[in-house]
Design a protein that fits this description.
This protein is α/β, with parallel strands linked by helices. It is 33% helix and 23% strand. The two termini are 13 Å apart.
Length: 206
């Protein structure tokens, strides 16, 4: 059974990725089991650049197939911010409360609250070469007061288009969120590519 390294330390992302990949005949490992992978500076200016950086670095450090993922929220009224800085928008990486508080302050009095979640996934073979990328986008809008206790990040404020009952991402069950989310879309597009590349490697005898 092939091993795929999930090159993220974000617990919320890991939960969702593992759930989406659980039916695949692969063994998933996380960076927690590979201290040799170290930290990767997310220096890219786009989600695609950061996903590639993460995947390539993790693969080269461990000798495993690796998937790098970068995602975030783009708000139209803020010219696409917080974008690639979504997880550290308020200055501290992963502080959801502070990030949401800053976002709401910046949107105070703003009528156009359209936004989208974006996710890019990149697959690197063991030598670090990127062999596939996928992208998922979930359009929606931001509400003024949070609702729901599920999900993570900006989910309590984000209502996806066509969501029944106008529920936020944080009010949806995990399987409901996965069905419409940016990460769910990117992963479903990613799985066939992963199968092809792993099958190709097996066929070559490597």
């Amino acid at each position: 059974m092939k091993t795929l390294l999930l090159a993220t330390r974000n617990e919320g992302k890991l939960r969702e990725l593992m759930a989406l990949l659980e039916k695949e005949p692969i063994r998933t490992e996380t960076l927690a089991a590979h201290p040799e992978a170290g930290e990767v500076e997310e220096s890219g200016k786009t989600f695609d650049e950061n996903a590639r950086l993460k995947a390539a670095s993790a693969a080269r450090s461990t000798g495993l197939w690796a998937v790098g993922e970068d995602s975030g929220l783009e708000v139209d009224a803020l010219n696409g911010a917080p974008g690639v800085c979504s997880a550290r928008y308020a200055g501290i990486h992963g502080d959801d409360s502070a990030n949401n508080a800053k976002l709401m302050r910046e949107l105070e009095g703003v009528k156009d609250r359209s936004a989208r979640y974006v996710c890019v996934m990149a697959l690197a073979q063991p030598n670090g070469e990127i062999v596939a990328t996928t992208r998922g986008t979930c359009e929606g809008r931001l509400i003024e007061a949070p609702r729901g206790s599920g999900g993570f990040g900006y989910d309590p404020y984000f209502v996806a288009q066509h969501t029944k009952g106008e529920r936020t991402m944080a009010e949806l069950k995990p399987e409901q969120k996965d069905a419409i989310s940016h990460r769910g879309q990117a992963t479903r597009a990613f799985i066939p590519l992963l199968r092809v590349h792993l099958a190709s490697e097996a066929g070559s005898g490597n």
